[in-house]
Design brief:
Layout (H helix, E strand, L loop, with lengths): L4 E7 L3 H14 L2 H4 L2 E7 L4 H12 L5 E4 L5 H10 L8 E5 L3 E3 L4 H9 L4 E6 L1 E2 L4 E2 L3 E5 H7 L8 H13 L3 E6 L5 E3 L18 H7 L7 E5 L6 H5 L2
Parallel strand pairs: 1-2, 1-4, 2-3, 6-10, 10-12
Antiparallel strand pairs: 4-9, 5-11, 6-9, 7-8
């Protein structure tokens, strides 16, 4: 069956939060839109408790594709590997952390509404400053552009998704970051341990990162979820 969105979820221990993520994704998301998605979980060498939970979810149909890695590839390598498992028909990847709680059934409809506007290549819940950029814990992104650049594994943690955004902006596309969204999707943050502290690229300075954006033709735009109003009603017309 053709899919529009491949949802990429990396897991590394923290089974209680993985449970919240997978269950709320399946139970809260608009059912018609969920049919157009595939849920891909790439496990970064978790303990047996987490692996058993994931196998249970897979057996119960809450996960479409599940891979157990023999090593922790962290954020960049894990997402790149998960993306290679995606259905060839998918137009978008959704990078979704495994420590979130979905509260609003239309959370994904909102992201789709914005990414289908002219010149928008990605939309996130979450906004970071210095430099301004989309956060990476819930990022819907154009598949073709992601596949073109991927996440640079020389920057295994958050700077990898930042560099990807810089490349997209250089091509003239813009990105949207949505803030004030906790009533729609809540990110617990930092529940998978501190393995990232020794990741490649963590010693990169902010000054270096800002240079990546020097020749940007596109923009980082911001929206507040508080002002969503009747967007979804309009989107459904």
């Amino acid at each position: 069956m053709n899919k529009e969105i491949s949802i990429l979820i990396l897991t590394y221990n923290a089974p209680e939060y993985v449970k919240k993520t997978i269950e709320s994704l399946n139970n809260v998301t608009d059912k018609e839109l969920l049919k157009k998605c595939e849920i891909i979980v790439w496990d970064n060498c978790s303990d047996s408790t987490t692996k058993n939970l994931l196998n249970e979810f897979k057996n119960n149909g809450l996960i479409d594709k599940l891979h157990f890695s023999s090593e922790n590839l962290l954020f960049a390598g894990g997402n790149n590997s998960a993306a290679r498992l995606a259905n060839s028909s998918s137009k978008y990847y959704l990078l979704l952390n495994s420590d979130i709680l979905i509260k609003d059934k239309h959370w994904l409809n909102y992201l789709l509404y914005y990414i289908k506007k002219d010149n928008i290549a990605g939309v996130s819940y979450g906004f970071c400053k210095y430099p301004d950029r989309c956060d990476g814990y819930c990022l819907l992104i154009d598949r073709a552009l992601y596949d073109k650049y991927e996440l640079d594994t020389q920057y295994q943690w958050w700077w990898g998704v930042t560099k990807l955004q810089a490349e997209i902006l250089k091509e003239g596309y813009s990105l949207i970051a949505i803030y004030h969204h906790n009533h729609i999707l809540y990110h617990y943050g930092g529940k998978s341990g501190n393995a990232f502290k020794n990741a490649k690229g963590m010693n990169t300075t902010v000054q270096e990162v800002i240079k990546w954006f020097k020749f940007s033709k596109g923009q980082i735009l911001t929206k507040s979820a508080i002002r969503f109003g009747n967007i979804f009603k309009y989107f459904m017309k």
